[in-house]
Fold:
Amino acid sequence: MSSGLHREIIGDILRLGRDEGWAVDAPVGEKPLAARLGVSRTPVRRALIDLSERGILRRELGSGFKLNRPIDAAVIAECSNDAAGGAELYRKILNDRASGLIPLSVTENALLVHFGASRGDLRRALLRLSAEGIVQRQRGHGWQFSESLDNPQAILESYAFREAVETAALSQPDYRVDGAALERMRNAHEALMRKPASEIAPDMWFQVNAEFHETLASWSRNRFFLQAVKRQNALRRMHQFVDFPQLTPEQIKQSCEDHLAILDALAAGDRPRAVALLSAHLSQAAQDWHNQN
Amino acid sequence: MSSGLHREIIGDILRLGRDEGWAVDAPVGEKPLAARLGVSRTPVRRALIDLSERGILRRELGSGFKLNRPIDAAVIAECSNDAAGGAELYRKILNDRASGLIPLSVTENALLVHFGASRGDLRRALLRLSAEGIVQRQRGHGWQFSESLDNPQAILESYAFREAVETAALSQPDYRVDGAALERMRNAHEALMRKPASEIAPDMWFQVNAEFHETLASWSRNRFFLQAVKRQNALRRMHQFVDFPQLTPEQIKQSCEDHLAILDALAAGDRPRAVALLSAHLSQAAQDWHNQN
DNA sequence: CTGTGTTTTTTATTGCAGTTATATACACTG
DNA sequence: CAGTGTATATAACTGCAATAAAAAACACAG
Structure:
């Protein structure tokens, strides 16, 4: 209920621990965590206390917290139930907008009653959405959803923009591939392809896809390319549920293969080839979409 | 004082009238204005009443308002004194941040006492800044100015990004030049070049420059290219006061000439040449900046 | 119909207690 | 020092009544 920061932080800590493979009995310090997460010790402490009440950590008075059992998927799932809180509303808004349940231009009060949320939560969600360029405060009353990817023209424009930005990102002189991240992504794609088509949840594919494009952009070592790609992903996220049913299993498979080919080219250090593949990949997606509509 | 919408609208109406050259005695209708400005009639009406109290309009009961005297620079200046209101704080924040008076990470209350503003105005300003990606809410308390164009690395990245985006914009298949707008810009540049260097105010050059790049991008008929350029301009605006003194009159003159050459190429329908010139223009600017720092 | 003048309704802001969340400072330990 | 435990000071959020701003509705004129 309480929209506290420590809820979020519980999730952050667990993810951190999983990604770094913390060993059982390893000390989980409050100060270093606070520094890494960019918050003060107070909310970290609350999160740690919470976690120790769940038996994931244990507290040794005088020397802080220790990891009590390994951090696996089960643990994360257990704790992310209530961790949701704030992000929840954000998703709901995107969802309901994408499916037309809320109109392009909408008043704050209308949203309030529609979702039965608290004003504060709503404001936070809108703040985030507006930072992502998805919604804008309009003069006078109300909020205006950016004439986003809800019309065919906008989607074609989006593809054109992404093609320009992402290929340019790959062509930056400082471009440098992170081998470890590349391997992780390759695995994620291969795992996805092994699944039967019916088992691929919409947001799984979206997640992998978004991460692929963002990571590629991040290797440009240029924050603006990365930011632009992230913005596009945020817009696309808004329509993932609507668009997905139109994506055939073949198309998803094809996309995965495209991605893998691009990763191969990058791993081999052949950037011109990666650029060409990426460009073709995006044009093809635009073309497919165009034909379907 | 009152941060009302009608203050803004006064300015909007005057600018509209000037740009369209409204004749004396022409009717100034409340409903059409409301529609064009995207607000309801109420604030428009208040603005019109305000303007008629200043003698700029006159009211004819039963048939609305008429223009009483031509809209020239003096009129606009007269009314923009208090029209400022909301936008004022926005500028002040950018200013004080650019000159280091407020730190990168700052709390809402600190800003409140620093500017002596009302909480509401402050929130509005921050909302706008955050929509432009200049500032972000940070977890816990306070706001974080995006590690924006305040370090050399970021500026170089910005130039690289702009070069990619703007040249790509010019290369879009749907690109179409608007002759009238092109002529207006050409005039603005020539007027600027006729002035002695000492009389060029920082924001005059910035204004012309920003409009040039935005207009070029807008001709791509792709909202995302335009949006990206606008975002970059917003970031750059933040540092116009700091950067400008470093710009020599020769550099400004050179920039103007570059811009004019690009406009010429576009007017002649030679887009590849325009792209090459634009690319050279931005690389050169990056180079100059790099050498100076 | 398009627009004006006026009224009504809706929407959002402001100001202010009370409360909670977060950061910070201080004393202490290994 | 780098860390913990605790206390304290700030900062921000909540809820609520009062108020202001803006939108929408209505009646009527050309």
In short: Residues 2, 4-6, 39-43, 46, 62-63, 107-110, 140-142 of chain B lie near DNA strand D (CB under 10 Å from a C1'). Chain B touches chain A through 37 residues (CB under 8 Å).
